[in-house]
Design a protein that fits this description.
Blueprint (H helix, E strand, L loop, with lengths): L1 E6 L7 H13 L7 E7 L16 E6 L6 H18 L4 E4 L7 H4 L3 E6 L3 H4 L8 H17 L2 E4 L2 H11 L6 E3 L27 E8 L5 H14 L5 E8 L2 H14 L5 E5 L6 H7 L2 E4 L9 H7 L4 E4 L4 H5 L4 E3 L4 H13 L1 H14 L5 H13 L3
Parallel strand pairs: 1-2, 1-4, 2-3, 4-5, 5-6, 6-7, 8-9, 8-11, 9-10, 11-12, 12-13
Helix pairs in contact: 1-14, 7-8, 7-12
């Protein structure tokens, strides 16, 4: 039996790309007896182990970079990829990027789909981009869910939410947690630096996509109130992957109208290898999202001994447990009070750092990748 894994995905910095690269790097270290063919774009190779895999059972099939473009990728996935799978004798396919090829069912290829977002069914109006494109995306995701044999989601919260949204049969759904890139745990990790940034300055950090459901304007409002009360000459550093350009312009205007120069620092589309240093030098990490099926950045912050202050919505309490300080993202005053408490209460800070260093280690990449391969292999 041969398993196929479709990692032909976007080259933009995103949670999906992080997942793909982390999975590949961990897969390369495992002792696997099953034949696996991994489909991947050439532009991913620089971020995957140089030797790819010493296991002869794992073969990487390199695809051209133009398939990183959504339209080309979708056409390839639905029209060409299923035929290629059939010609290679692949009986089972893992599709970890919200979509799966519909023809696979008719070619008797079993599919396992991994869903990384419930946003289209929960906050459709907050999705970035054109409403027509978003509607088509939602429908293609729904068809992928209905056509797949097994659906993997990132948390138990996500499982409950998607069952309710689409009236799914719960036994069709498996939960496999995401995991932190193991480089965050390396003691000798070389932390890449931003040459223009002063890491000794006092700052609060937030890393997220620039989308409305991440509630960035409310964060700015809360920080504005905080900066008037806390005499620390503190800054807010936002690391944003800009997915909603109009919202980004709204954020920039709000910053210009309400803050002094360099009080808010924004880094766009920053390379992931520069995050560790930003986490470890920050006073605290804050995340204000409404809609998360997992949420990885808070665990990355915990791995760098940074206190975490976070929204109490969606899957975030499940993933962060008692290792974070929570707030209602709709309540600006509560958000401000939480930030202030996490900055000034030394006992709380020590507690969050100690608890967080344990919490983030629960999300073990080896266990999660093994569990995923097991689900695919046991599919009948």
């Amino acid at each position: 039996m041969t398993i196929g894994i479709d990692f032909v995905g976007t080259n933009l910095g995103s949670g999906t790309k992080t997942y793909n690269i982390n999975f590949c790097n961990q897969l390369n270290t495992l002792s696997i007896s099953t034949n696996i063919k991994v489909f991947i774009c050439k532009n991913y190779l620089s971020q995957i182990s140089a030797e790819l895999s010493k296991n002869s059972k794992i073969e990487y099939i390199i695809k051209p970079n133009f398939l990183s473009i959504t339209l080309f990728r979708m056409l390839w996935m639905q029209l060409i990829f299923p035929i290629e799978l059939k010609s290679l004798g692949i009986k089972k396919l893992y599709s970890p990027m919200n979509f799966t090829p519909f023809l696979a069912r008719f070619l008797k290829i079993k599919t396992v789909l991994c869903l990384h977002s419930n946003l289209p069914w929960i906050y459709f109006d907050l999705m970035p981009g054109n409403i027509v494109r978003n509607f088509l995306t939602k429908k293609l995701m729904e068809l992928s869910i209905y056509f797949c044999d097994i659906l993997i989601v990132d948390s138990f919260f996500a499982k409950k939410e998607i069952i309710k949204a689409l009236s799914l049969y719960k036994k069709k759904i498996e939960v496999v947690y995401l995991n932190i890139n193991q480089s965050f745990f390396l003691k000798k990790n070389v932390k890449h630096l931003i040459s223009t940034f002063n890491y000794k300055s006092n700052y609060i950090l937030s890393v997220m996509s620039c989308v409305k459901y991440h509630n960035i304007i409310n964060l700015l409002k809360a920080f504005r109130l905080l900066s008037k009360e806390v005499n620390l000459n503190i800054k807010l550093v936002l690391v944003l992957q800009v997915l909603d350009k109009n919202y980004f312009l709204e954020i920039k205007k709000y910053v210009t109208d309400n803050f002094k120069k360099k009080e808010i620092l924004i880094f766009n589309n920053l390379e992931s290898n520069k995050l560790a240093a930003l986490y470890s030098s920050s006073k605290l990490y804050v995340f204000t999202s409404y809609c998360e099926v997992f949420g990885l950045t808070s665990l990355e912050a915990m791995s760098q001994s940074t206190p975490v202050v976070i929204s109490n919505r969606s899957a975030l309490p499940e993933i962060n447990g008692t290792s974070a300080l929570y707030f209602d993202p709709d309540n600006i005053m509560e958000m401000k009070k939480s930030l202030k408490k996490a900055l000034s209460d030394m006992r709380l800070r020590k507690k969050l750092i100690k608890s967080g260093s344990k919490q983030c280690k629960k999300f073990n990449s080896k266990i999660n990748v093994n569990k995923t391969i097991k689900i695919i292999r046991e599919l009948t």
